[in-house]
Amino acid sequence: MTAAGKGLEGVVASQTSLSFIDGQEGILAYRGYDIHDLAPNASFLESVFLLWNDRLPTREELASFEAELAGLRAVEPGTLEGLSGIPRDTVPMAALRTGLSLEGIFDPDAEDNSPEANLRKAKRLVARTPTIIAAAHRLRQGHDPLDPDPSLSIAADFVRMANGEPGTDEAAAALDRTLLLYLDHGFNASTFACRVIAATLGDMHSAVTGGVGALKGSLHGGANAKAMETILEIGEPENLGPWLEKAFAEKRKVMGFGHRVYKTKDPRAKHLKAMSEQLTKQAGLETLFEISSELENQMVGQKGINANVDFYCATVYYALGVPIDLYTPLFGMGRMGGWTAHVMEQHADNRLIRPRAEYVGKNDLPWIAIDDR
Ligand code: ACO
User: Fold this and answer.
1) What CA–CA distances, in Å, run from 123 to 52, 97, 296?
2) What tens digit of pLDDT does each residue of 93-116 get?
């Protein structure tokens, strides 16, 4: 028995009808709708509705869905208590992981995997992920968490809860679009982790908590924060050449570049690049965009490696004033819509996910009694 390629490259593990990716042509679609149509026209929650219901909502359905989720934003008091007890320097992704796990303890449907209970939990999870991230952020800065304001959109309320004051409509719209672009992406590492957990008939909170753990790593969601650190480290356009030469010589991965599935441009990057150009200009941070686009040119020109979703998202968030260690939690806020959809899809037609391993260790060793070792 021989193993599949390292990292399961090219392995089609199962089926999904949530998102379609063509890595050769650079196509991404949610439930059949191209990301290039969704990104400029739909909202994050409209796309979540699409993913969960397999159809676009009417205006009335969308308004009622938004209102329902807005009413679910307040997290359990026990979750806030738990978050206030973790060390002040806990990294935000670890705080999110803990917050979601706590929500699972208090959830009235915690152990119920029925489709109805799963949908109720999915709504609470999408609605409350921003609240958890904002609460942990406030606590870390020595402030009390703020209650949600259901009159605001999910993105605008996140900005208010995290910063203590409302942001502009434009900032909320930009944030919302990044959430839409992060929503779902086939069997990416964190989603696959969720599906493995769901396939044991594990509950939704356990699954998405595992998803956060997988997203946290820098080869996956952690890359958006690392990409920003890279751009800041380069600092000035004239530093780019020597910086890249050194990175290549040291065989360092340039964060925000490369993708397991896309062998061409990541279609999400197109939208984020346009947003980055506009927002950095408005914020007087053109240099960061200049460095970014030149880094992209060099990576494509010298290595044939394209920017992925995380690269231009970094400068979008920077221009919006988001603290760097909240970039990956924001990715999780968007992906929560996808993770929960995958748990529902897995539970609806389940079989345990349990691959084999090719054993490459020693064999047939003679037993040695403990006193003889
Ligand atoms: N910088 C420099 N070289 C790279 C990069 C990069 N970002 N990505 C790939 N390469 C090179 C590798 O060094 C390797 O070269 P080699 O064959 O000469 O050794 C080749 O391209 C193939 O790279 P792998 O790491 O084997 O590709 P894999 O499919 O396993 O990894 C991954 C994909 C993890 C995304 C990788 O491109 C990477 O580490 N990128 C940086 C981290 C990042 O941006 N992650 C976010 C991905 S998108 C997301 O998760 C939402």
Assistant:
1) 10, 17, 37
2) 999 999 999 999 999 999 999 999
